[in-house]
Give the backbone structure.
Amino acid sequence: MQSIRHPEPTHIEITISRRRMYVSLMHRFEVCSLWSIIAEYEKRLLEFYRDDIIGGASVRVMKLGDSRFNIDAPQQPENAIKALVNHMKEVFKLPLIVDFRPNGMNDFLRFIPIFPVCKRFLLYGTEPISSQELKYIEDNVVVEERYNCMIPVN
Protein backbone atom coordinates (compact mmCIF):
# COMPACT_ATOMS: atom_id res chain seq x y z
CA MET A 1 0.00 0.00 0.00
CA GLN A 2 1.27 3.49 -0.76
CA SER A 3 1.86 5.98 2.04
CA ILE A 4 -0.74 8.67 2.53
CA ARG A 5 0.25 12.33 2.65
CA HIS A 6 -1.77 14.09 5.33
CA PRO A 7 -1.64 16.70 8.05
CA GLU A 8 -0.86 15.13 11.41
CA PRO A 9 -3.75 12.72 11.94
CA THR A 10 -5.44 12.76 15.34
CA HIS A 11 -7.59 9.62 15.27
CA ILE A 12 -9.14 6.82 13.26
CA GLU A 13 -12.90 7.06 12.89
CA ILE A 14 -15.08 4.02 12.26
CA THR A 15 -18.69 4.40 11.11
CA ILE A 16 -20.79 1.26 10.87
CA SER A 17 -24.46 1.14 9.94
CA ARG A 18 -26.64 -0.94 7.67
CA ARG A 19 -26.27 1.54 4.81
CA ARG A 20 -22.67 2.66 5.19
CA MET A 21 -19.38 1.44 6.58
CA TYR A 22 -16.40 3.77 6.62
CA VAL A 23 -12.96 3.87 8.15
CA SER A 24 -11.39 7.33 8.09
CA LEU A 25 -8.02 8.70 9.04
CA MET A 26 -8.87 12.05 10.58
CA HIS A 27 -7.13 15.30 11.48
CA ARG A 28 -9.58 16.73 14.00
CA PHE A 29 -12.71 17.14 11.82
CA GLU A 30 -10.90 16.89 8.47
CA VAL A 31 -10.80 13.61 6.56
CA CYS A 32 -7.23 12.72 5.54
CA SER A 33 -8.13 9.37 4.00
CA LEU A 34 -11.44 7.56 3.61
CA TRP A 35 -12.04 3.85 3.06
CA SER A 36 -15.60 2.88 2.20
CA ILE A 37 -16.46 -0.78 2.67
CA ILE A 38 -19.00 -1.92 0.09
CA ALA A 39 -21.15 -4.73 1.45
CA GLU A 40 -23.44 -4.96 -1.58
CA TYR A 41 -22.31 -6.84 -4.65
CA GLU A 42 -21.90 -4.56 -7.70
CA LYS A 43 -20.86 -6.74 -10.63
CA ARG A 44 -20.68 -3.81 -13.05
CA LEU A 45 -17.84 -2.20 -11.06
CA LEU A 46 -15.73 -5.29 -10.33
CA GLU A 47 -13.39 -4.66 -13.27
CA PHE A 48 -12.20 -1.46 -11.55
CA TYR A 49 -11.09 -3.25 -8.38
CA ARG A 50 -7.63 -4.73 -7.91
CA ASP A 51 -6.56 -7.46 -5.54
CA ASP A 52 -4.52 -6.18 -2.62
CA ILE A 53 -3.45 -7.21 0.86
CA ILE A 54 -4.18 -5.10 3.94
CA GLY A 55 -2.82 -6.28 7.24
CA GLY A 56 -2.37 -9.80 5.89
CA ALA A 57 -5.95 -10.07 4.57
CA SER A 58 -6.75 -10.31 0.86
CA VAL A 59 -9.16 -7.59 -0.28
CA ARG A 60 -10.39 -6.06 -3.53
CA VAL A 61 -9.70 -2.31 -3.62
CA MET A 62 -10.78 0.46 -5.99
CA LYS A 63 -8.95 3.78 -5.75
CA LEU A 64 -11.34 6.72 -6.15
CA GLY A 65 -8.91 9.59 -5.66
CA ASP A 66 -5.66 10.49 -3.93
CA SER A 67 -6.88 9.32 -0.54
CA ARG A 68 -10.31 7.76 -1.18
CA PHE A 69 -10.82 4.02 -1.60
CA ASN A 70 -13.58 1.44 -1.86
CA ILE A 71 -13.14 -2.08 -0.54
CA ASP A 72 -15.36 -4.76 -2.05
CA ALA A 73 -16.57 -7.00 0.82
CA PRO A 74 -20.08 -8.31 0.09
CA GLN A 75 -19.70 -11.57 2.03
CA GLN A 76 -18.10 -10.57 5.34
CA PRO A 77 -17.53 -6.81 5.58
CA GLU A 78 -16.48 -7.17 9.24
CA ASN A 79 -13.33 -9.07 8.17
CA ALA A 80 -12.25 -6.34 5.73
CA ILE A 81 -12.95 -3.60 8.28
CA LYS A 82 -11.05 -5.45 11.01
CA ALA A 83 -8.00 -5.97 8.76
CA LEU A 84 -8.03 -2.30 7.73
CA VAL A 85 -8.49 -0.99 11.28
CA ASN A 86 -5.76 -3.25 12.67
CA HIS A 87 -3.39 -2.14 9.89
CA MET A 88 -4.13 1.55 10.48
CA LYS A 89 -3.73 1.18 14.26
CA GLU A 90 -0.37 -0.49 13.74
CA VAL A 91 0.90 2.10 11.26
CA PHE A 92 -0.48 5.31 12.79
CA LYS A 93 -0.78 4.40 16.50
CA LEU A 94 -3.91 6.53 16.89
CA PRO A 95 -7.02 6.15 19.05
CA LEU A 96 -10.33 4.93 17.63
CA ILE A 97 -13.60 6.81 17.61
CA VAL A 98 -16.53 4.54 16.78
CA ASP A 99 -20.01 5.51 15.56
CA PHE A 100 -22.03 2.27 15.64
CA ARG A 101 -25.67 2.24 14.44
CA PRO A 102 -27.00 -1.33 14.32
CA ASN A 103 -30.54 -0.54 13.07
CA GLY A 104 -31.63 -3.19 10.57
CA MET A 105 -28.34 -5.09 10.70
CA ASN A 106 -28.36 -8.86 10.90
CA ASP A 107 -26.02 -10.25 13.54
CA PHE A 108 -24.59 -6.82 14.34
CA LEU A 109 -22.53 -8.19 17.24
CA ARG A 110 -20.06 -9.67 14.71
CA PHE A 111 -18.65 -6.14 14.32
CA ILE A 112 -17.77 -5.70 18.02
CA PRO A 113 -14.34 -7.48 17.82
CA ILE A 114 -13.19 -4.79 15.37
CA PHE A 115 -12.83 -2.22 18.14
CA PRO A 116 -12.14 -3.86 21.51
CA VAL A 117 -10.57 -0.63 22.82
CA CYS A 118 -11.62 2.82 21.65
CA LYS A 119 -11.35 6.38 22.84
CA ARG A 120 -15.01 7.16 22.18
CA PHE A 121 -17.87 4.80 21.45
CA LEU A 122 -21.20 6.13 20.21
CA LEU A 123 -24.06 3.60 20.07
CA TYR A 124 -27.13 5.01 18.34
CA GLY A 125 -30.36 3.52 17.11
CA THR A 126 -34.13 3.64 17.03
CA GLU A 127 -34.69 -0.12 16.99
CA PRO A 128 -34.39 -1.75 20.41
CA ILE A 129 -31.64 -4.21 21.25
CA SER A 130 -31.85 -6.78 24.02
CA SER A 131 -30.27 -6.25 27.41
CA GLN A 132 -28.04 -9.28 26.66
CA GLU A 133 -26.79 -7.62 23.45
CA LEU A 134 -26.06 -4.40 25.32
CA LYS A 135 -24.26 -6.34 28.05
CA TYR A 136 -22.17 -8.13 25.40
CA ILE A 137 -21.18 -4.77 23.91
CA GLU A 138 -20.34 -3.24 27.28
CA ASP A 139 -18.36 -6.35 28.33
CA ASN A 140 -16.34 -6.47 25.09
CA VAL A 141 -15.59 -2.82 24.32
CA VAL A 142 -13.26 -0.85 26.57
CA VAL A 143 -14.03 2.86 26.23
CA GLU A 144 -11.24 5.14 27.40
CA GLU A 145 -12.96 8.52 27.33
CA ARG A 146 -16.66 8.71 26.41
CA TYR A 147 -19.44 6.19 25.91
CA ASN A 148 -22.80 7.40 24.59
CA CYS A 149 -25.60 4.87 24.44
CA MET A 150 -28.67 6.28 22.74
CA ILE A 151 -30.57 3.15 21.79
CA PRO A 152 -33.71 1.60 23.30
CA VAL A 153 -33.12 -1.62 25.27
CA ASN A 154 -35.71 -4.39 25.70
